[in-house]
Design a protein that fits this description.
Chain lengths: 430, 278
């Protein structure tokens, strides 16, 4: 137990508000209340690399509708107009384009609230099955107070051709954010889901942004998940994105954060099934006074499960980034294999980076388990080489940094989002 | 500078210049990690000339080449370097390249994620200057043509710059860059090392085809074999960080046959490396 005091003004009336506003069923209300109780009894966590003592855990009140969205989000939605997307601003689903064809094969695509009404038992079955309220204070906070998020259900053996995109925007009027999304890909299903988190203007400090994404990948399912975030300064950002994989399921993550926020994040695949595989490629662009602690983790419980993590950080100014790449091979996960690469590029002398590889191996019969971590500056010899062919220094720097980031960016399944992220990175690589 | 950009693409070169270059090194001193490696070296190279520098290992040849190109690890502590009267030492690395200098490196860097073609096009456009950029299609046609001449697999255009290239492939890639950028002063540092016999001839042919009054060459090599294909006008021997003997092509032949001992004896040098005092 910790003796430090956390200023908590979060109240249970938020739950009552949500239950009323969305006319939520009893099961959900009970879960929210149980999560809230958990949240209250849990102490402020002590993290090795992040000091949470001065961070408040305040959230709400939630507005029913805030202004229409920034020019940036408008432009993005405009380029997504022919695709399947949902736009949620400050917890309220305000715009969507869901082609009828999507529902033809039994696919369900909607906001999570809408799914609670339309497919209550499906949501009840899976919600909280991958990320439980008990696992951390912010997981409990999210489970108690989530206001909306994505729901995607792909039935058995259905291949969803279209990429589905959820766009979120937060403003100071949201008083924090609690996004919760649930993806269920049944046996043999295939889908690609992208989420984009944006911020509009300065955010309120002292609030919490807690996102949770749960992915249930059934046997032989194949799921691509892309997440682009910009955790900005002001609130405390907590994020948990986790997939649980059945036998021979495959989950490919691509993640990019561009920001100056105070953030503690977890990206994880729980490789429960035999022969399940997962890849995770990440980019982090940090600037300002960013504090960013990200754990990319693979839990190998299934035999012959395989994973690959590859993280790329580029940080400047006074940003402080901690990237932990973690592989846990459990006992009985014979034949499991994993690879980690964690590279961090410090673009300014004032930036700080920490690359922490972690390997926990409880099984003797492991086929491969490699890791490589490095923190460094831009390679002088590469710079000299490009300049020696006439390329000006600034441009040469950009080419090298882009060369380092490009292969990860290419993994974004949707080209609209990919270009959006590319442009955003380019603006931040001054 | 008197330079003219030639837009009649499809012909040999993307960049042509009118004047014959004059490159002058006077009493150059270079330090690396606080140790003087080049110790008073003078050399003049005019357009149309090919100069070869030979010399035992560790005598400062690559240091000279890197310092001329402006590598940040090499500190110039004395002397001057000019190209057509302009002070090269005041120029940044990329300015030197845009002024027409080119160095085929002994150990070229690998750059992941940057394709060969993209790199070369950016380099060429930097050299041509804003408003004179080469059209994409013309660039690729020219690139494929040059790659064919150098017997480089066409897929190398889209491969990442030097990444995973064999020693010989890297060397050919250096020559490809030289052929595309068409410099006024080309320094080739051990371009023959790692090349098989056929590749050596191909590379030599490429150099010979560029030979004109508009370009001067400085070729660093250990072997007479390269100089049989690329016949030099002047041969210099470097020891202890300076040129200790200059002559015609016959000097290279003599060194090939007899080694360096006779020269060291004549000069009273016991240890030819830069660490040793003369
Ligand atoms: N970046 C550097 N850092 C430390 N020492 C260096 C560096 N560059 C050159 N030297 C030293 O300077 C001396 C000359 O090296 P240089 O590479 O110029 O020789 P070289 O004549 O090109 O030899 P070789 O024929 O083997 O290529 C050597 O003793 C070398 O170790
Ligand atoms: Mg050398």
């Amino acid at each position: 137990m910790t003796t430090e005091q956390t200023p908590i003004s979060t109240t249970s009336s938020l739950i009552t508000d949500l239950v009323h506003r969305f006319n939520e069923p009893a099961w959900l209300r009970e879960r929210r209340e149980a999560a809230f109780a958990k949240y209250e009894e849990m102490p402020t966590p002590k993290l090795e690399k992040t000091d949470l003592r001065r961070r408040s855990f305040d959230i709400g009140p939630f507005a029913s509708l805030t202004a229409g969205g920034s020019a940036r989000v408008r432009a993005l939605l405009d380029s997504l107009k022919d695709k399947a997307f949902v736009f949620i601003r400050d917890g309220v689903a305000v715009q969507s384009n869901i082609p009828d064809t999507i529902h033809q094969q039994g696919v369900v695509l909607s906001s999570l609230h809408a799914a609670v009404s339309s497919h209550g038992s499906l949501v009840e079955k899976h919600l909280g099955s991958v990320v439980t309220a008990e696992e951390s204070k912010w997981a409990a906070l999210n489970a108690a107070f989530w206001n909306d998020g994505a729901f995607l259900y792909v039935p058995r053996n259905v291949k969803l051709e279209e990429t589905v995109t959820f766009v979120y925007e937060s403003s100071a009027q949201g008083h924090g954010a609690a996004v919760r999304s649930l993806l269920v890909a049944e046996e043999g299903a295939e889908c690609a889901y992208t989420e984009v988190f944006l911020t509009d203007g300065e955010l309120e400090s002292g609030k919490v942004h807690a996102d949770v994404l749960e992915v249930v990948a059934g046997a032989r399912a194949s799921v691509k998940i892309a997440a682009s975030t910009e955790y900005r300064k002001g609130p405390t950002n907590f994020t948990i994105r986790r997939a649980k994989l059945a036998s021979d399921a495959k989950v490919d993550w691509v993640y990019c954060d561009i920001g100056d926020g105070f953030t503690v994040g977890l990206l994880e695949s729980d490789l429960v099934g035999t022969g399940s595989t997962s890849t995770l490629s990440g980019i982090g662009i940090g600037f300002g006074r960013q504090h960013f602690e990200l754990t990319a983790s693979m839990l190998h419980r299934g035999r012959y499960s395989e994973s690959d993590i590859s993280m790329h950080g580029a940080i400047r100014e006074r940003a402080n980034s901690i990237y932990r790449t973690s592989t846990h091979i459990f006992r009985h996960a014979a034949g499991a294999g994993s690879e980690q690469r964690d590279r961090m590029l410090m673009l300014d002398g004032t930036a700080r980076a920490d690359a922490i590889p972690m390997l926990l191996i409880d099984e003797n019969d492991v086929q491969r388990c490699g890791h490589a971590a490095s923190v460094g500056r831009l390679d002088e010899n590469q710079l000299y080489y490009l300049q020696s062919r006439g390329i000006p220094e600034k441009q040469a720097r950009r080419m090298i940094i882009w060369g380092y980031l490009e292969p990860t960016l290419e993994a974004f399944p949707d080209e609209v989002v990919r270009e959006f992220v590319r442009q955003h990175i380019d603006e931040e690589l001054v | 500078m008197t330079e003219k950009v030639n837009f009649t693409f499809g012909q040999e070169r993307l960049v042509t210049r009118m004047a014959s270059p004059v490159f002058q090194i006077r009493d150059l001193h270079v330090k690396v990690e606080n140790k003087e490696i080049v110790r008073g070296l003078s050399l003049e190279i005019k357009g149309g000339e090919i100069h070869a520098i030979m010399g035992p290992n560790g005598t400062g040849k690559s240091t000279l080449a890197s310092a001329l190109m402006g590598h940040p690890a090499y500190e110039i502590t004395g002397g001057s370097v000019t190209l057509d009267g302009e002070n090269v030492l005041e120029m940044s690395v990329d300015e030197r390249a845009r002024a027409g200098m080119f160095l085929a490196m002994q150990y070229p860097a690998e750059v992941s994620g940057v394709s060969n073609a993209n790199f070369l096009r950016t380099a060429l456009n930097s050299r041509l200057g804003e408003g004179n950029e080469v059209p994409v299609l013309k660039f690729h046609r020219q690139l494929q043509q040059k790659m064919k001449e150098l017997n480089i697999d066409p897929t190398f255009a889209e491969r990442y710059l030097n990444e995973g290239f064999s020693g010989g492939e890297k060397k050919r890639n250096e020559i490809l860059q030289m052929a595309m950028l068409n410099p006024r002063l080309a320094i080739l540092d051990e371009i023959d090392s790692g090349l098989d016999i056929d590749a050596l001839r191909i590379v030599a042919d490429a150099v010979n085809s560029l030979r004109s009054p508009e370009i001067g060459f400085l070729i660093i090599t250990h072997y007479q074999r390269l100089l049989q294909h690329i016949v030099p006008d002047h041969v210099h021997v470097m020891m202890q960080g300076r040129i200790v003997r200059s002559g015609g092509r016959e000097l290279a032949e003599k060194l090939e046959q007899n080694g360096y001992d006779w020269l060291k004896q004549e000069l009273g040098i016991e240890d030819e490396t830069v660490g040793a005092e003369a």
